[in-house]
């Protein structure tokens, strides 16, 4: 199983934050959070003000959360309402921090693909890396990046463990979200390039959780 493989290894930090308790805030974007009813989520400035206001109140500079979370916030965008059953289950971990925050490769890899997924509520600039670990291939996805993150990329470009290769984008370039990184793992790409579902429907939850193992096996954030 990929989970056991990931748990056997230590990885380079993906972002420049310490994950000891008290240094970050776990953010809840489910119906259990009454704040969301008071925020205009379709207004990226208001949404960003809410997120970074919560971080400021907690006296931290980074927020985290989201894997396998049944989220309310995707109602803000038609991008997640294009099928009979809306997509609402988050398949990655979000790291909410200032635009320009650097992103580093957790292990050696190469660029599988990249794209600017520019729909409202989509990933914006996106990079997918391909990795080999003990003979097993898997992929890591980095969404909501800066436009500059895509400059000079090409498929097959080698990215070394610990190398800075991207940075957080700002709205509207990052898909019109408060600045954050969507970090996701995949065991197969399903023929896709530069994109992969980061949110699935309730009906497809188990299928996609099998395809997308918990990214915290790499991040190792204590409270997630």
TrEMBL record:
Matches recorded under Pfam families: Peptidase_M23
Gene3D superfamilies for this protein: Glucose Permease (Domain IIA)
Keyword Repeat set for record: no
UniProt KW keywords: Hydrolase, Signal
Entry superkingdom: Bacteria
CDD domains: M23_peptidase
UniProt-recorded name of the protein: Murein DD-endopeptidase MepM/ murein hydrolase activator NlpD
Gene source species: Runella defluvii
């Amino acid at each position: 199983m990929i989970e056991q493989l990931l748990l056997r290894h230590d990885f380079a930090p993906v972002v420049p934050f310490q994950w000891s308790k008290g240094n970050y805030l776990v953010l809840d974007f489910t119906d259990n959070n009454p704040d969301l009813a008071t925020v205009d989520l379709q207004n990226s400035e208001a949404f960003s003000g809410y997120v970074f206001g919560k971080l400021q109140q907690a006296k931290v500079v980074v927020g985290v959360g989201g894997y396998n979370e049944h989220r309310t916030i995707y109602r803000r965008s038609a991008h997640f309402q294009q099928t009979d059953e809306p997509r609402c289950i988050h398949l990655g971990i979000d790291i909410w921090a200032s635009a320009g925050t650097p992103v580093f490769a957790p292990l050696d890899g190469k660029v599988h693909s990249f794209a600017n997924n520019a729909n409202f509520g989509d990933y914006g600039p996106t990079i997918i890396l391909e990795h080999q670990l003990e003979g097993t291939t898997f992929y890591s996805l980095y969404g909501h990046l800066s436009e500059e993150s895509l400059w000079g990329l090409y498929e097959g470009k080698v990215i070394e463990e610990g190398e800075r290769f991207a940075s957080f984008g700002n709205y509207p370039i990052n898909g019109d979200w408060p600045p954050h990184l969507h970090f996701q793992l995949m065991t197969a790409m399903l023929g896709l390039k530069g994109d992969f579902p980061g949110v699935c429907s309730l009906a497809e939850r188990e299928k996609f959780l099998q395809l997308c193992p918990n990214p915290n096996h790499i991040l190792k954030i204590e409270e997630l």
